[in-house]
Predict the structure.
Amino acid sequence: MEYEQMWAYQYDDLGLYVCPVEIVYIEDDDGNVTKTIPPNSTEVSPDDLVHARWTGSGWVESATAEYLESLKIIDTADESDGTKALRAVADILENMVRGDA
């Protein structure tokens, strides 16, 4: 039997969001189906939180206000769209290197 692909959201030992993981359906010889959600996962989506942390009952934002403020892109008429895109990529890479992402 085919089942719709469903996703769970995995978190680490600190409750921080890691990645989406597929929910697996296992059918036994009698036709009974068990939905299996991987350990440290929930079906509740973290939506668009920057640094989502699972509390056991829901996701909360764990990024500081200063960090969230630093992610805002300043829109200036002097920069082309290409320059803005390069600046955004540079910011993402810098955050990854520092361990913020």
Q: What stands out?
A: The chain has a mean pLDDT of 86. The first strand starts at residue 7 and ends at 11. The CA atoms of residues 23 and 37 lie 5 Å apart.
